[in-house]
Description:
By secondary structure, the chain is α+β, with helices and mostly antiparallel strands. It has helices at 3-24, 28-39, 44-50, 57-95, 116-130, 144-147, 180-188, 228-243, 296-301, 318-326, 333-336, 339-342; strands at residues 134-135, 141-142, 173-174, 193-202, 213-223, 249-254, 259-268, 285-294, 310-317. The strands form two sheets. The chain has a seven-stranded mixed β-sheet with strand order 1-4-5-9-8-7-6, with helices on both faces. The chain has a two-stranded antiparallel sheet with strand order 2-3. Helix 1 (3-24) packs parallel to helix 4 (57-95). The model has no long low-confidence stretch (mean pLDDT 93). The structure holds 3,4-dihydroxyphenylalanine (DAH). 3,4-dihydroxyphenylalanine is lined by residues 177, 179, 218, 256, 259, 290-292, 313-315.
Amino acid sequence: MSEKDQILADLERLRAGFRERFAAAKGEQALRDENAKILGKKGELTAILAKMGKVAPEDRKLIGGKTNELKGEVEKAFNDALAALANAKRKADLEAPPFDLTLPGREPAPRGHAHVISIVRDEIVEIFEAMGFAVFDGPEIDTAANNFDRLGFPPDHPATDMHDTFYTTQGHLLRTHTSNIQVRAMSSQKPPFAFIAPGACYRVDNDVTHSPMFHQVEAFLVDENVSLAHLKGVLAEFAERFYGKGTPVRLRPSYFPFVEPGAEVDIGCVFCKGAGCSVCKHSGWIEVLGCGMIDPRVFESCGIDPEKWTGFALGMGIERQAMLRYRIPNVGLLFENDPRFLEQF
Length: 345
Ligand code: DAH
Protein backbone atom coordinates (compact mmCIF):
# COMPACT_ATOMS: atom_id res chain seq x y z
CA MET A 1 0.00 0.00 0.00
CA SER A 2 1.33 3.44 -0.90
CA GLU A 3 2.00 6.00 1.83
CA LYS A 4 -0.93 7.99 0.49
CA ASP A 5 -3.38 5.05 0.70
CA GLN A 6 -2.07 4.12 4.13
CA ILE A 7 -2.78 7.65 5.42
CA LEU A 8 -6.20 7.76 3.80
CA ALA A 9 -7.05 4.44 5.45
CA ASP A 10 -5.85 5.71 8.85
CA LEU A 11 -7.93 8.88 8.49
CA GLU A 12 -10.96 6.79 7.58
CA ARG A 13 -10.53 4.54 10.62
CA LEU A 14 -10.28 7.57 12.87
CA ARG A 15 -13.36 9.17 11.31
CA ALA A 16 -15.39 5.98 11.73
CA GLY A 17 -14.60 5.70 15.45
CA PHE A 18 -14.23 9.10 17.14
CA ARG A 19 -17.90 9.84 17.76
CA GLU A 20 -18.37 6.56 19.53
CA ARG A 21 -15.27 7.22 21.63
CA PHE A 22 -16.55 10.64 22.74
CA ALA A 23 -19.96 9.18 23.49
CA ALA A 24 -18.39 6.50 25.69
CA ALA A 25 -16.36 9.01 27.73
CA LYS A 26 -17.88 9.33 31.22
CA GLY A 27 -17.56 12.89 32.51
CA GLU A 28 -15.64 15.96 31.43
CA GLN A 29 -12.15 14.73 32.30
CA ALA A 30 -12.61 11.48 30.39
CA LEU A 31 -13.89 13.46 27.40
CA ARG A 32 -10.90 15.79 27.49
CA ASP A 33 -8.52 12.81 27.77
CA GLU A 34 -10.11 11.16 24.73
CA ASN A 35 -9.86 14.41 22.75
CA ALA A 36 -6.18 14.71 23.68
CA LYS A 37 -5.56 11.17 22.40
CA ILE A 38 -6.72 12.32 18.98
CA LEU A 39 -5.78 16.01 18.69
CA GLY A 40 -3.09 16.34 21.39
CA LYS A 41 0.64 16.72 20.74
CA LYS A 42 1.05 12.97 20.80
CA GLY A 43 -2.45 12.36 19.42
CA GLU A 44 -3.40 10.02 16.56
CA LEU A 45 -4.30 12.76 14.05
CA THR A 46 -1.09 14.62 14.87
CA ALA A 47 0.85 11.40 14.19
CA ILE A 48 -0.84 11.03 10.82
CA LEU A 49 0.02 14.61 9.87
CA ALA A 50 3.64 13.98 10.77
CA LYS A 51 3.78 11.46 7.92
CA MET A 52 2.94 14.11 5.29
CA GLY A 53 6.58 14.58 4.49
CA LYS A 54 6.69 11.11 2.96
CA VAL A 55 3.73 11.74 0.66
CA ALA A 56 4.31 12.64 -2.98
CA PRO A 57 3.96 16.42 -3.43
CA GLU A 58 0.99 16.10 -5.81
CA ASP A 59 -1.01 14.14 -3.19
CA ARG A 60 -0.35 16.49 -0.29
CA LYS A 61 -3.22 18.81 -1.12
CA LEU A 62 -5.75 16.01 -1.07
CA ILE A 63 -4.48 14.52 2.18
CA GLY A 64 -4.04 17.91 3.82
CA GLY A 65 -7.61 18.80 2.94
CA LYS A 66 -9.00 15.55 4.30
CA THR A 67 -6.98 15.83 7.47
CA ASN A 68 -8.16 19.38 8.17
CA GLU A 69 -11.71 18.37 7.46
CA LEU A 70 -11.49 15.53 9.96
CA LYS A 71 -9.81 17.79 12.49
CA GLY A 72 -12.73 20.22 12.21
CA GLU A 73 -15.22 17.38 12.68
CA VAL A 74 -13.43 16.10 15.77
CA GLU A 75 -13.22 19.59 17.27
CA LYS A 76 -16.89 20.22 16.67
CA ALA A 77 -17.90 16.85 18.12
CA PHE A 78 -15.71 17.49 21.17
CA ASN A 79 -17.21 20.93 21.79
CA ASP A 80 -20.74 19.58 21.30
CA ALA A 81 -20.09 16.77 23.78
CA LEU A 82 -18.63 19.27 26.28
CA ALA A 83 -21.68 21.52 25.94
CA ALA A 84 -23.98 18.52 26.34
CA LEU A 85 -22.22 17.60 29.59
CA ALA A 86 -22.56 21.17 30.91
CA ASN A 87 -26.23 21.24 29.98
CA ALA A 88 -26.86 17.94 31.69
CA LYS A 89 -25.18 19.22 34.86
CA ARG A 90 -27.14 22.45 34.85
CA LYS A 91 -30.38 20.55 34.30
CA ALA A 92 -29.54 18.23 37.21
CA ASP A 93 -28.77 21.24 39.45
CA LEU A 94 -32.02 22.93 38.54
CA GLU A 95 -34.03 19.80 39.12
CA ALA A 96 -32.30 18.88 42.41
CA PRO A 97 -34.23 19.58 45.61
CA PRO A 98 -33.56 23.25 46.59
CA PHE A 99 -31.37 24.22 49.56
CA ASP A 100 -33.45 24.50 52.71
CA LEU A 101 -32.39 27.87 54.07
CA THR A 102 -34.40 27.27 57.23
CA LEU A 103 -32.28 24.28 58.37
CA PRO A 104 -30.26 25.03 61.53
CA GLY A 105 -26.53 25.57 60.88
CA ARG A 106 -23.98 22.93 61.71
CA GLU A 107 -20.95 24.04 63.78
CA PRO A 108 -17.68 23.10 62.07
CA ALA A 109 -16.12 22.18 65.44
CA PRO A 110 -17.12 22.30 69.09
CA ARG A 111 -16.96 25.87 70.31
CA GLY A 112 -14.97 25.33 73.50
CA HIS A 113 -15.31 27.28 76.72
CA ALA A 114 -13.29 29.24 79.27
CA HIS A 115 -10.41 27.48 81.06
CA VAL A 116 -11.16 26.34 84.60
CA ILE A 117 -8.70 28.95 85.99
CA SER A 118 -10.60 31.69 84.16
CA ILE A 119 -13.93 30.30 85.35
CA VAL A 120 -12.78 30.32 88.98
CA ARG A 121 -11.11 33.75 88.62
CA ASP A 122 -14.29 35.28 87.19
CA GLU A 123 -16.37 33.75 89.95
CA ILE A 124 -14.10 35.15 92.69
CA VAL A 125 -14.02 38.58 91.04
CA GLU A 126 -17.82 38.57 90.74
CA ILE A 127 -18.24 37.78 94.43
CA PHE A 128 -16.02 40.72 95.39
CA GLU A 129 -17.66 43.02 92.84
CA ALA A 130 -21.01 42.21 94.41
CA MET A 131 -19.55 43.43 97.73
CA GLY A 132 -18.53 46.75 96.14
CA PHE A 133 -14.93 46.09 95.11
CA ALA A 134 -13.80 47.45 91.70
CA VAL A 135 -11.33 45.67 89.43
CA PHE A 136 -7.80 47.16 89.34
CA ASP A 137 -5.22 45.94 86.84
CA GLY A 138 -1.42 45.99 87.03
CA PRO A 139 1.56 44.73 85.01
CA GLU A 140 3.15 41.29 85.29
CA ILE A 141 6.59 42.84 84.84
CA ASP A 142 7.28 45.39 87.55
CA THR A 143 10.05 46.98 89.59
CA ALA A 144 11.52 45.40 92.71
CA ALA A 145 10.33 48.54 94.51
CA ASN A 146 6.66 47.87 93.71
CA ASN A 147 6.89 44.13 94.23
CA PHE A 148 9.04 44.13 97.39
CA ASP A 149 10.51 47.31 98.87
CA ARG A 150 7.44 49.51 99.16
CA LEU A 151 5.53 46.54 100.64
CA GLY A 152 8.03 46.44 103.48
CA PHE A 153 10.21 43.53 102.39
CA PRO A 154 13.72 44.05 103.77
CA PRO A 155 16.41 44.04 101.01
CA ASP A 156 17.74 40.66 102.12
CA HIS A 157 14.33 38.95 102.36
CA PRO A 158 14.60 35.37 101.03
CA ALA A 159 11.77 35.97 98.52
CA THR A 160 13.97 38.48 96.69
CA ASP A 161 16.56 35.77 96.06
CA MET A 162 17.39 34.85 92.45
CA HIS A 163 16.42 31.30 93.37
CA ASP A 164 12.85 32.42 94.04
CA THR A 165 12.24 35.37 91.71
CA PHE A 166 12.63 35.70 87.94
CA TYR A 167 14.59 38.88 87.12
CA THR A 168 14.78 40.44 83.68
CA THR A 169 18.13 41.44 82.22
CA GLN A 170 17.12 45.10 82.58
CA GLY A 171 16.63 44.98 86.32
CA HIS A 172 12.89 44.39 86.44
CA LEU A 173 11.19 41.26 87.72
CA LEU A 174 8.18 39.08 87.01
CA ARG A 175 5.87 39.91 89.89
CA THR A 176 5.88 37.18 92.52
CA HIS A 177 2.39 38.08 93.75
CA THR A 178 -0.46 40.45 92.91
CA SER A 179 0.42 42.59 95.95
CA ASN A 180 2.30 44.93 93.57
CA ILE A 181 -1.16 46.17 92.59
CA GLN A 182 -1.76 47.38 96.16
CA VAL A 183 1.26 49.67 95.79
CA ARG A 184 0.18 50.87 92.35
CA ALA A 185 -3.42 51.54 93.40
CA MET A 186 -2.47 53.23 96.67
CA SER A 187 0.05 55.46 94.88
CA SER A 188 -2.43 56.60 92.26
CA GLN A 189 -5.86 56.61 93.95
CA LYS A 190 -7.24 58.67 96.79
CA PRO A 191 -8.95 56.70 99.59
CA PRO A 192 -11.55 55.55 100.34
CA PHE A 193 -11.46 52.67 97.86
CA ALA A 194 -11.89 48.92 97.59
CA PHE A 195 -10.23 46.97 94.79
CA ILE A 196 -10.05 43.42 93.52
CA ALA A 197 -7.04 42.60 91.33
CA PRO A 198 -6.64 39.25 89.55
CA GLY A 199 -3.55 38.30 87.55
CA ALA A 200 -0.66 36.00 86.70
CA CYS A 201 2.39 35.72 88.97
CA TYR A 202 5.73 33.96 88.65
CA ARG A 203 8.12 32.15 90.99
CA VAL A 204 11.00 29.74 90.57
CA ASP A 205 8.92 26.83 91.83
CA ASN A 206 7.75 23.58 90.27
CA ASP A 207 6.16 20.61 92.03
CA VAL A 208 2.73 18.97 92.46
CA THR A 209 1.25 22.03 94.17
CA HIS A 210 3.39 24.78 92.57
CA SER A 211 3.72 25.96 88.99
CA PRO A 212 6.30 28.61 87.93
CA MET A 213 3.39 30.62 86.47
CA PHE A 214 0.26 30.80 88.57
CA HIS A 215 -2.58 33.18 89.35
CA GLN A 216 -3.62 35.23 92.34
CA VAL A 217 -6.38 37.55 93.32
CA GLU A 218 -5.59 40.47 95.59
CA ALA A 219 -8.32 42.38 97.39
CA PHE A 220 -7.81 45.47 99.53
CA LEU A 221 -9.94 48.13 101.09
CA VAL A 222 -8.84 51.48 102.52
CA ASP A 223 -11.14 53.76 104.51
CA GLU A 224 -11.37 55.39 107.92
CA ASN A 225 -11.75 53.12 110.95
CA VAL A 226 -11.40 49.82 109.11
CA SER A 227 -10.98 46.93 111.55
CA LEU A 228 -10.15 43.25 111.53
CA ALA A 229 -13.88 42.66 111.97
CA HIS A 230 -14.51 44.15 108.50
CA LEU A 231 -11.87 41.84 107.08
CA LYS A 232 -13.37 38.80 108.74
CA GLY A 233 -16.84 39.79 107.57
CA VAL A 234 -15.67 39.99 103.96
CA LEU A 235 -13.87 36.64 104.28
CA ALA A 236 -16.92 34.95 105.77
CA GLU A 237 -19.09 36.28 102.95
CA PHE A 238 -16.58 35.10 100.36
CA ALA A 239 -16.33 31.61 101.91
CA GLU A 240 -20.11 31.27 101.96
CA ARG A 241 -20.52 32.32 98.37
CA PHE A 242 -17.54 30.47 96.92
CA TYR A 243 -17.36 27.31 99.04
CA GLY A 244 -21.00 27.03 100.06
CA LYS A 245 -23.40 28.09 102.79
CA GLY A 246 -22.21 27.64 106.34
CA THR A 247 -18.52 27.20 105.43
CA PRO A 248 -16.68 28.21 108.63
CA VAL A 249 -13.71 30.59 108.51
CA ARG A 250 -10.90 31.10 111.02
CA LEU A 251 -7.92 33.43 111.13
CA ARG A 252 -4.56 32.16 112.38
CA PRO A 253 -1.85 34.72 113.22
CA SER A 254 0.85 34.76 110.58
CA TYR A 255 3.48 37.08 109.16
CA PHE A 256 3.62 39.01 105.87
CA PRO A 257 5.85 42.11 105.61
CA PHE A 258 3.01 44.35 104.40
CA VAL A 259 0.35 43.65 107.04
CA GLU A 260 0.17 44.06 110.80
CA PRO A 261 -1.37 42.02 112.21
CA GLY A 262 -1.15 39.35 109.50
CA ALA A 263 -3.14 36.16 109.33
CA GLU A 264 -3.63 32.99 107.39
CA VAL A 265 -7.22 32.06 106.67
CA ASP A 266 -8.55 28.53 107.02
CA ILE A 267 -11.95 27.30 105.94
CA GLY A 268 -13.67 24.24 107.34
CA CYS A 269 -12.51 21.29 105.20
CA VAL A 270 -14.81 21.15 102.17
CA PHE A 271 -14.25 17.40 101.81
CA CYS A 272 -14.94 16.03 105.30
CA LYS A 273 -16.91 19.01 106.65
CA GLY A 274 -14.54 19.20 109.59
CA ALA A 275 -14.61 15.52 110.58
CA GLY A 276 -10.99 15.00 109.49
CA CYS A 277 -9.65 13.48 106.28
CA SER A 278 -6.38 13.07 104.37
CA VAL A 279 -6.80 16.36 102.48
CA CYS A 280 -7.00 18.45 105.67
CA LYS A 281 -4.52 16.15 107.41
CA HIS A 282 -7.23 15.32 109.95
CA SER A 283 -7.34 18.88 111.28
CA GLY A 284 -10.76 19.69 109.84
CA TRP A 285 -9.35 22.95 108.38
CA ILE A 286 -7.76 23.94 105.08
CA GLU A 287 -5.61 27.01 104.51
CA VAL A 288 -6.89 29.13 101.62
CA LEU A 289 -5.30 32.58 101.72
CA GLY A 290 -3.23 35.25 103.46
CA CYS A 291 -4.50 38.56 104.78
CA GLY A 292 -4.07 41.28 107.37
CA MET A 293 -4.41 44.95 108.24
CA ILE A 294 -2.31 47.10 105.90
CA ASP A 295 0.93 48.08 107.65
CA PRO A 296 1.25 51.86 108.24
CA ARG A 297 4.69 51.75 106.59
CA VAL A 298 3.05 50.60 103.33
CA PHE A 299 0.66 53.55 103.48
CA GLU A 300 3.63 55.84 104.01
CA SER A 301 5.58 54.40 101.09
CA CYS A 302 2.54 55.05 98.86
CA GLY A 303 1.85 58.57 100.07
CA ILE A 304 -1.23 57.81 102.16
CA ASP A 305 -1.56 59.27 105.66
CA PRO A 306 -1.50 56.32 108.12
CA GLU A 307 -2.94 58.48 110.90
CA LYS A 308 -6.11 59.03 108.92
CA TRP A 309 -6.48 55.86 106.86
CA THR A 310 -6.74 52.21 107.74
CA GLY A 311 -7.33 49.17 105.59
CA PHE A 312 -7.11 45.45 105.07
CA ALA A 313 -5.64 43.33 102.28
CA LEU A 314 -5.89 39.72 101.27
CA GLY A 315 -4.34 37.56 98.59
CA MET A 316 -5.23 34.11 97.36
CA GLY A 317 -4.00 31.65 94.75
CA ILE A 318 -6.60 30.93 92.08
CA GLU A 319 -5.16 27.49 91.31
CA ARG A 320 -5.45 26.60 94.99
CA GLN A 321 -9.13 27.59 95.09
CA ALA A 322 -9.78 25.64 91.87
CA MET A 323 -7.96 22.57 93.22
CA LEU A 324 -9.94 22.63 96.47
CA ARG A 325 -13.22 23.32 94.77
CA TYR A 326 -12.86 20.53 92.19
CA ARG A 327 -10.53 18.23 94.16
CA ILE A 328 -7.75 18.43 91.57
CA PRO A 329 -4.74 16.52 92.94
CA ASN A 330 -1.97 18.01 90.79
CA VAL A 331 -1.54 21.66 89.73
CA GLY A 332 0.13 20.43 86.51
CA LEU A 333 -3.27 19.28 85.22
CA LEU A 334 -4.34 22.93 85.09
CA PHE A 335 -1.53 23.77 82.67
CA GLU A 336 -1.20 20.66 80.50
CA ASN A 337 -4.31 21.65 78.52
CA ASP A 338 -5.42 18.09 77.95
CA PRO A 339 -8.95 18.44 76.52
CA ARG A 340 -10.12 15.33 78.42
CA PHE A 341 -9.39 17.21 81.62
CA LEU A 342 -10.59 20.65 80.52
CA GLU A 343 -13.89 19.42 79.07
CA GLN A 344 -15.08 18.51 82.57
CA PHE A 345 -15.60 22.12 83.65
N1 DAH B 1 1.23 38.20 98.64
C1 DAH B 1 1.07 37.04 99.49
C2 DAH B 1 1.66 35.83 98.82
O1 DAH B 1 1.85 35.85 97.65
C3 DAH B 1 -0.37 36.79 99.79
C4 DAH B 1 -0.93 37.84 100.70
C5 DAH B 1 -0.80 37.72 102.06
C6 DAH B 1 -1.55 38.93 100.16
C7 DAH B 1 -1.34 38.65 102.90
C8 DAH B 1 -2.06 39.92 100.99
C9 DAH B 1 -1.95 39.74 102.37
O2 DAH B 1 -2.68 40.99 100.53
O3 DAH B 1 -2.49 40.69 103.18
O4 DAH B 1 1.89 34.86 99.46
